[in-house]
Amino acid sequence: xxxxxxxxxxxxxxxxxxxxxxxxxxxxxxxxxxxxxxxxxxxxxxxxxxxxxxxxxxxxxxxxxxxxxxxxxxxxxxxxxxxxxxxxxxxxxxxxxxxxxxxxxxxxxxxxxxxxxxxxxxxxxxxxxxxxxxxxxxxxxxxxxxxxxxxxxxxxxxxxxxxxxxxxxxx
Length: 171
Ligand SMILES: [Zn+2]
Prior knowledge:
Number of domains: 1
Structural class: alpha+beta
CATH class: Alpha Beta
Mean pLDDT: 92
Bound molecules: zinc ion
CATH architecture: 2-Layer Sandwich
Low-confidence stretches: none
Number of helices: 2
Shape: elongated
Order of helices and strands: EEEHEEEEEHEE
Helix content: 10-25%
Strand content: 35-45%
């Protein structure tokens, strides 16, 4: 068997801009602010002798772009955050935190994510799960490992691994 080969789509080619906040009382990031996020993905597996690919870049980029498009130019709201109550009110979302209507935002401007906090770590975990699912259900077989990195500022990011070859401490 050939040794595994790694292919990557680097952070330079996959980016989105979004607003967020953290429910950490008194922390500077509790205030609404934004980042120009960048996403990098590395995929490890065997080269398919028929195609010469580990994973087709076109498929890889399509899967990732479909995942980050709903986040782009939106407010990222952590739907699983126990300190946040999110109420749908017509075309708006009303967020109760430290009191009612802490934030009211037009629904199309928001992206509800199934995470407890919108930290780089948990965004990477969310995207890692989704990228792995998207690739494996999208017909990209034989992958050992996918590594997804989310950078919220230059030089400041988090990475996760998914798949059977993922290192256990990062799963
Ligand atoms: Zn931030």
